[in-house]
Write a structure and sequence with these properties.
The chain is an alpha+beta fold. About 55% of the residues lie in helices and about 10% in strands.
Amino acid sequence: MAAIKVHGTTLSSATIRVLAAINEKELDYELVLVDMSVGEHKKEHFLSRNPFGQVPTFEDGDLNLFESRAITTYIAHEYADKGTQLIYKDSKKMAITSVWMEVEAQQYDQAASKLAWELAAKPVFYGMSSDTAIVEENEAKLAKVLDVYENRLAQSKYLGGDCFTLADLHHLPTIHYLMGTQAKKLFDSRPHVNAWVADITARPAWLKVIALQKKQ
């Protein structure tokens, strides 16, 4: 039985963010499916793992964590000697990577997640119409962020520097959902962003996540 357990669902952006990090580290794990359609994530046994009732939660032996970016950071540090080096040992390089990890969470994801909800989740999973005003507002916001990314990626192959790190990995779930929507044009129209997206979405660790998602 794997020491690492991830409680969540492959439809969840946060869950597949964690699975991507686990795969990059080539770790064994058990995915414990949480049936959100019946509100399992709001029941007492799940709330004991995450009082906010959100997936995923993560176990590694006696350690229990929630919040996907905290989990991926733990994985990168705890298993630094395995698989892909998702962080830098050099403190200055890691500081730069940390900046772009914050940019993803505080700038990019604010708009990207809203677009993923409006353009992918609502029509596909809930049969609801997208809110055009919200889409237009957040496409404009995301475009400004991607302009910054275009400049950054003209200088380095990845956001954090010359190597693939958590700063790049954290983007994968929302990029995955947005590539099937009209928002794809925002990435395609920026050459360096487009090349970066093609690179990170073709990583074997990520393709394993997508293959698992298609099975479930």
